[in-house]
Structures are given as C-alpha cells and as structure tokens.
Amino acid sequence: MPRRTDYPLQVTCTRHGLPVKLTWPTKRRSEKIAEILDQWREVGAWWDAEPERQVYLVVTTTQKSYEVYQVLQTGSWYLTRVFD
Amino acid sequence: MFAHLHFHSPFSFLDGTGDFAETARIAAESGIGAIALTDHNTVSGALRFQRELKQVGVKPIIGAEVTLEGGYHLVLLAKDQIGYANLCRLLTEGWLRSTNGREFALSIESLRTFNRNLIALSGCRKGKIPALILQNKFRAARQAAEEYLAIFGRDNLFLELQGNLLPHEARLNKYLADLAALLKIGVVGTCNVHYPHKADFPLHDLLTCVRTLTTLPDLHPERRLNAENHLKTPEEMSRLFREYPRALANTALIAEACSNGIEFPRNIFPAFDTPQAETAQEFLRRLTFTGAKERYGQLTPEITARLDKELSIINQLGFADYFLAVWDVARFARAEKIRYAGRGSAADSAVAYCLYITNVDAIARGLLFERFLSLERGEKPDIDIDFEAEGREKVIEYIYRKYGRDRVATVCTFNTFGTRSAIRDLGKAMGFSLAELDRLAKRFPWFKINDPVEAIQQYPELRNSGLPFHRYEQLFKFVAQVSGQPRFIGTHLGGVVISSLPLTDLTPLQYGHQSRLITQFDKNDIEDLGLIKFDLLSLKTLSVLRDVAQTRSPETIPQADRATYEMLNSGETVGVFQLESPAQRSLQSRLGAERMEDLVASVALIRPGPIEGNMVEPYIARRQGREAISYLHPDLERILKKTYGVVLFQEQVIEIATVIAGFTPGEADQLRRVMTHARSRAEMQNLGALFCQKAQARGVSPEVSETIFSYIMGYAGYGFCEAHAAAFADTAYKTAYLIRHHPAEYFCALLNNQPMGFYSPETLCVEARRRGISILPLEINESQRDFTVTPAGIRVGLKQLKGITDQTIQAILTTRANAPFTSLFDFALRVPTNRAITENLVLAGAFDRLHPNRKQALWVLNQALKSGKATTLATSTTAALPLVIQSTAPQVTSEMTDFTRWEKFNQERGILGFSASRHLLEFYREYLRINAYATSQDIKELPADTRVRIAGKVVRPHRPPTKSGRTVVFLTLEDEFGLIDATVFEKKYQTYGHLIFTRELLGLSGRVQKRGNASSIMVDEVHDLPKIALAK
Questions:
Q1: Which residue from A59, B139, B709, B841 has the fewest beta carbons nearer than 10 Å?
Q2: What is the ipTM of this complex?
Q3: Who contacts B905 (Cβ-Cβ below 8 Å, separation ≥6)?
C-alpha cells in the first residue's frame, strides 16, 4: 500500500529535465532511476495558490516505485508517494 | 503548416471559454494555419468563428465533437458543403432522439447514413478507441477502429494523439500509433483546446464546476488535472509530438482537404404558391393594388408611382415571395380573428400597408421606403408582427402546416452570462452560500457591468451596502472574464425562418421551448445562411384590446378624440401602451399632444439618445411655440417641419443626406447605418468629408454643410425609426382612448393579461381606484375565473390565487352553478380540491362574507379534517379528490380573535400578489398624518418650490443615461391615493442610493416641481420609515 509523504528531495536530471537519481538529503541515501513509468502535469488547488507541478512515477534500480514531483515555479522536488 | 483540429469555444456551453477574435489573433501571431471548431454537439459558433479567422488569414474548418450512444465522443470535420450538410443532419438526429431536448446521442446507423465528406478523428479520452485502450481492451479498441474505418474510409479516419501531459498519455499515444499503423490509417496530433491562454484555466475549471454542480474543492471526473488545454503554438506542439512528426504533418493535410469555411447561398426563401398561374411578382402586384383601392379609394398618380417604385425594388431584390408569405400570414390572422400589428421599419412600406401587414399609411406620413429596403443596401427585409398572445401559436402552427415541418423553425437565442447570473453561478462553485450570493447579486444593477470592481466604486447601493467586498475579489475577476459568454441555448421569442430547402442542409435543429424546433444559429447569424427571418411576436397589449373589443372594438375608435388627448395631457397615462413610464408621463404633461404626430414623436423622444442629446426640452419648447424654429437650409424645412426643426427620426437623416448632399436614398441609408456602427474617428471624419464635398458641389456653403453633418452625425446613432414609432403610436392612442372611455373594462383586461406593461398589478389597482373603479376582493360565490367587470367594480378572479389549478377553478364554477356555497364546510364537502388551496382561499378573503373571522374559519376546516375518515394533504397542485371530512360542521364553542388587519393584508398579498382591500401605506397613514407627510394627491395642489415630505411604496427606480454622464435616478412613490414621481440627482444619489434601490417603502423630503400639468418632487433627503409607525 502506498504511504503518502511530501518529502523534499534532491533530484539529478538529464539535460532535458528528466529525473535520473533521487537523493534523500537527510538520510544520505540515493537511488538511481531505472525507468520512468509515467509522467504528467498537475495544477492542484489553484484557488489556494497551490503551485503547478510535473509529476513522475518512477521505478528505481532497487525495484522500488515512487511518485515524485517538481514544483515548476521553484524547481524544488518532492517525494509524494512510496509504493511498497 | 500546423492546424489545430480539436478546438472548443464558449459554444460548448460551460466547457470552453475565450473569444474568437482573441483566438484568431493568437493563431495568426503564432503561425497556426488553420483551426477546426469542434464544439460539443453544435455548430452554433461556426459563422462568427469563420468570420474572425478569415479576417486574419487563418483557415476555419467547421466540425463538432459528437456524443455517440454509450457516451463516447467522436470528432467530425466537414470537408465541404456536402460534409457540412451531413454534419447538420447528424447533429439534428442526435438532438431529436430525446424529447426533453437535453440529451444528445448519435447512433452508429446515423453515422453510416450521413458519412459523406466528413473526416473523423478518434477524439479525446472519451473517444471509444482511446477509452478502450486505457481499459486495456485492445481487441475491442481495434474493432471500434475497424467499425469507423468501414464508415469513413481510410482517407477520412485519423486516430488522435493528444498532447495534454496527462497520466498514461505516452502509453496511450503509442498504442494509438501502433493501431493506426496496423490498420494503415493516419494519426493526428491535437491538444483538445478549451481556452485560448493557459491563464484561462482557472475560469474553465470554475465553469466545469458550474456545469457539474460541484464546488472547487470537490473531485469530479470532468475536472481537468492540469492547464494544458490551451491553444498551443506550433513550436509547443512540435516538442510534444517529436516522436510522431507524421501526426503534425497530417494536420496540414487535413486542413488542405477541407474548404476555407463554408459558403452559404444568398436567398433560399421558398417560392410562394400563387394561384391562376401568375408569377409571384404578378400576384404581389395584383394584391397590392387591390389593397390600395380598399385603403385609399381613389388611386392618385402619387400613390401609383410610389407603389410601382416599391414593387420594382422588391422584385429586383428578389423578395416578392417573402412579401407574399408575410401577406399570407396576416391574411390567416385576419381570417381567424387574431389581432395583430405590423411594426418596425416595415411600416415605411406602402406595399405593406396595402397588403394589410401594417396599419401605417407610409404615403400619407411621407415615410421613406429606403429605410426599410433599398437596392444599394441590398439587405434582406425584416418584418416584425405583433400578435395577441393566444393567437400567435395558431399562426406559427399554420406556417408549419403550410411549408412543412422540415422547412420551418424558430430561431434560437443564447443566454449569456450577465453580472448577476455570473455572481450566482461562479460564486456557488467557489463555495459561497446561496443566501450570501443572492444578497450580493441583487445589489448589482440589471444592466451588464464589465467590471464589478469599478461598479462598486460607482454605485452607492453597492458602495454603501455594508457587504464585505474584499471577500469577493477573485469572484469579481472571474465575473468580468466570463461576462457576455454563452451559457446555454434557448428559444428566441419571435424569430421564425422558412426555407425552400430542408433546414438541416444549413443548420442543425434541436428542441427548444415547448418542443419547438430551433436552429443552432441566432438572429445575428441566421441570415448569413441564406435564410430570411421574420419576427412573429406576442404582444399582450393586443390581447388586452381583444378582451375590450367586446365592449368597444378598436377599429371603431375615432381619431383625434379630444377627451383622450386631454387625459394624455394631464400625464395620467398609467396603462397606456408605450406612454406610461414616469418619463413618458412627465413628457405628456408638458407636450400638449393634440394629434397622432405628437404621439409618434413621444414614442421616439423618450429614448436614451434624445434624452442624452438633450433634445426633449427644445422639442417641447418648439412644439408649444415658446422657442423659434429656424432652419440652416431652406430644404430642411420640408423634412423637419413635422418635428419642429429637430432631427428625431432615422428617415429624416436619410432625407437630409439625399436633399442636401445628393445621396440616393439607398446611399443615404447606408450612410446612416455606417454612422450608427462606425467605430473609428477616422471613419466618421471620412464620411463627413464626403457629405460636405457632395453638399458643396450642390451649392451648400462649407459652414452650413459641416453644421448639418454634425446634426445628423449626432442623431444617427440613436434616431428612432419613424415607421416603428407610428405603428406604436397607433396602438398607444387606442389604449388611451379605452382608458378614458372604458376604464373598468380596460383595467380589467390589463389585470387579466399580467404580467405585462410597466407596472405591477398592485399599482394598476391603485390607478383603477384613483379613477373611481373599485377593486372587489376575491369572493367564493362571485368571482369568475378571470377578473371581471361588475356594476360595483372589478372583481378579482379565481385564477389570481396562488397554487390554484384550472381543474379546481372549473370545479368551483361548475359546483357553484348548481347552488351557491353556504359555508366553508359546504364548499369543502362539494368541491374536489385540496387543503392548501382551500386555506389559501380563506386567507385571501374569499369566504369573508360567509365567515368574517378567517382564523375561525381555518379552525373549523382543521377540525373537520381531523375528524374525517381520511385527509388528502396533497401538494398545492393536485386536486384529485374531495377533502374527506366529517359529515357535519364542527361546532364553534368560543369566539376566536381574528388575524389583525396587517396579517390579513400580508396574507392577501402573499396569495394574490396584492391586496384588493388595503394599501401598504394605509398602515402608516396615521403616523404620516401626525408627522405632516403629504399624500400623492396633496402634492398636486401645492405650488412649486413648496418643501414637502412624502412616503410611499417604491416603484421602478431607474437611472437612464444622461447627456452629462452623471447619474440621475427617477423613481415613483405609490400611496393609497396614487403615484408621485421623484428625481434624485447625483449628489443625493451618492448619499442615498443604497436606500433607493433596496427598500420597498421610503420616506423622502424635497421640493415640489411643476412641469406642465404634472407635479413631482426634487429630492433632498431619503429615509426609512420607522417600524413603530406601523399600525397593525
């Protein structure tokens, strides 16, 4: 079952902006992305000034699946869902 | 070249926003070569769309996104005229499936029948193929594709890859591309556009909430995940479809294969079925001259020449069949004794007069035919006919029978967002409570406001309302954005089109009001399809004349009745058609009307233009000989003599341009129209230069020609059509005559035909009483269905009772015919009705003669019902069974205190819409008397400049545009004795506006003004009446 978090991440990207590595800054842990399963854009609760984001569903080389997103306005990355 | 082939406009009704001009501009600037309009199940926006796009050199393609049985979507694009006609037929089939006219569902069989020259795209995620793929039903998706392939063929079917950055999009597009390759069909790239700019997304999301009856925080499958449905540039599309370059290239191929919009024929009016093998022109001529002999007796050379000229123009323009059709409609109405009156610019036509289409003698009045029809303008005629309300349906049915149901339709209309409706709809979606939105919306004026934020500063009833406007900032922003956009399609009140071709060649048809078939194009666009519209409207004043005709036939009313003109001159014109508003009453009391020309001028004078142009006072002064009349040029005298030197009518503008500058009448009318719609200063200057040049060539001095042009430039924008004014004045005079000589019958007819006119039934009752006619209350043994005239006054009719049905009324009348009701109990035993209606009858006073104590009567009823075997506590609209009550009336053991006068008054008002026995001000009269408030009758006796206080019920406060641009509010106060008009100037309005537009009752103080025969108040101060003043 997925656990919902909005955890700040550091993400390494290709020059086209696609994520290739996820790093948990406080845990000093990184995982390489094996495949981007899907991606889409979300607007969110714009009436509450929620920012637009690009969302990625990724699977890492350790076979874990994550939903991460980048806030387009700031460039910051967050982890929002972990699939066990 | 890239083409957007899936585009929704606001004509997708709450699923699209933006405007065509802006879309066209973006497309032109970003290099989009073509756009296909694909609204949901409609082509309503097609003509405006193609006009705007062609102006900027972008190719318009007409299509629609249709909903199939099962709910799947499919995009269809018309390649050409044939494809467009098939699209119209498909849309018609889809709409006519449901009798309520609200659900669209197209069958596959229909697609097979009407597939020619259409290109199909598989659609958005609601398309059958993509929907099945997303469900992993690949075999079914392939079958669906093969089914479409069989219908449309390989060259006309494309699978739609979409670039909206949604979940699973890459996978979906890949499957679609693979399927297309397998079946050897093409792919196209689209982005399902629903708004022009990305920044428009919030409004679109809000409209989605309105459409789905949800609020912003709610989840709903119709809500879009992101703001990627805007009109993307070719560069953005290239990036999105870099893996599928063929998808973008194919958009250009499709655009090439489609025509540049759709062209329509000029005139497809059906040929009239003429008798005796005559041509339409011959038959029209014969009818015209037969009618002319009846109208004129002797045909002078002038009359003959005029008729010949008109017939020549009509025939050259190819409108003989149209005139014959209208003549036939009028003939049918006369034969069925349906009252009617032709109006508008058609009254400029002597032919129309001779054909009995209008009742205005254009030759005697010197009216210019070219205002109605001219070779230079070459536009289609537009004839408006008012019918009495009940007869209009018969006329429409006749037209359907005569021409065929597939060739006649009513024109649609688009309900658009106004300020109030936008506040309510969008505010609800934003989560505001209905009560709060109602309070907010009602504060805004009825007329359209482009910027609510500006309006708050401008209007004191908003500024001083105490409402927390800071809460509504975001709402107001959206209200301004959505203003004027279409919300839904409706039925035009009168527009009817008749076609020689099946209408579905030109426009889809769908069900409108009362299951009438309506076109998908409104009156602004319908003629561009080659159709001619005529307006068959319903005018309740004609129903009133019909009702009074039993006492006095309008046809027998003498012209120039002195007593009628005396009444008009007193300003006592409540109830007179077109002349009853406060501004008209004020005018009539000063004008001194003596003849029909004065009434014609009255109708034209009280309009925004002449008022803003400050023409009213000079006109009155000249009419009364108080101001000298001079003419800049001797030739102007003949044209302007009837209006005392003032340019009042559009026809006069045409004549001036003709006589002074040598324009032909047709050219002059074109000039008038261009000046009316001219947008730029440069254009007006060019017109002025042309006019002056031509005038000077005819010997007119430069100074005089420039001054004359400045007159007509000022008046052309708002001048009224004289023919229209004359038609209205004719009816106005007849109603005035009837009020003067048959007031009881006339006011009774007015009350029976509500809602209509300027005033409420309550005010009409006050006016009737003022004229000495009593209003007799509802009475269970006396009242008929309708209001009726009796020797003692006007008796309120049963139909006025809230909630009563025709069935119940009939039951009362039938039962009573056997024997009058002797008590409420007797009534309940004998008449099949329900408790709610019976109680309403009691509270309205219908049983007062039998049971003076209404509370006691209700108690008796209640007791009887409780003790009976069963009760029918039905809704107010069912009346199936008698109230089952005990067999004998309950005994009243002690006297009960009745409702107070105040309670009774409010009950009557609530149930009947007014009280027949009392007026609201009676309850304040004692307080008002003690505190020296004058009555409406007192004011009439007071000299000018007297300071007074007065109180009354507020009637129709309004603020018409003024020359200075400053706000002046006109309102009327009504007391139990009559009406008094009051004027509130800008400064006082800014202080008291929040009271004027929100209160039912007001007190005000000011100074008496005397203008002509009327009195009014110039207001200094406005106040609420204290509640303690109420004498209950």
A1: B139
A2: 0.93
A3: B915, B917, B918, B920, B923
- Contact (Cβ atoms closer than 8 angstroms) between residue B855 and residue B839: no
Looking at residue B690, its pLDDT comes to 86
Tell me the shortest Cα–Cα distance from B154 to chain A, in angstroms.
Answer: 32
> What is d(CA B925, CA B935) in angstroms, rounded to the nearest whole number?
9
Judged by CB atoms closer than 8 Å, whether chains meet at B228 and A41 is answered as yes
d(CA A27, CA A23): 8
Instruction: Kindly determine whether residue B226 and residue A41, on different chains, have CB atoms separated by under 8 Å.
Output: yes
* B471 in contact with chain A, both atoms CB, cutoff 8 A: no
* pLDDT value, residue B1019: 95
| Cβ contacts of B228 on chain A, cutoff 8 Å | 41
Judge contact between B633 and B704, C-beta under 8 A. Answer: yes
Query: What is the enclosing helix (H) or strand (E) of B152?
Result: helix B138-152
Which is nearest to B416 in space by CA: B406, B425, B408, B429?
B425
CA separation for the pair B578, B758 (Å, rounded): 9
Phi and psi at residue B204, to the nearest 5°: -65, -40
CB proximity B226 to A under 8 Å: yes
Tokens of A51: 């920012």
How confident is residue A1, by pLDDT bands cut at 50, 70 and 90?
A: very low
Low-confidence stretches of chain B (pLDDT < 70) are 99, 446-450, 612-613, 675-682, 714-718, 867-894, 961-963, 1028-1032
pTM of the predicted model, to two decimals?
A: 0.84
B416: Cα within 13 Å, side-chain hemisphere: 15
The β-bridge relationship of strands A3-13 and A77-83 is antiparallel
| Residues 31-50 of chain A whose Cβ lies under 8 A from any Cβ of chain B | 38-43, 45-47
Q: Does B963 touch chain A (CB under 8 A)?
A: no
- Distance from A29 to chain B by nearest Cα, in Å? 28
With CB atoms and an 8 Å threshold, state whether B201 touches A43.
yes
Task: Calculate Rg over the CA atoms of chain B.
Answer: 33
Residues 190-219 of B with CB under 8 A from A: 201-202, 205, 216-217
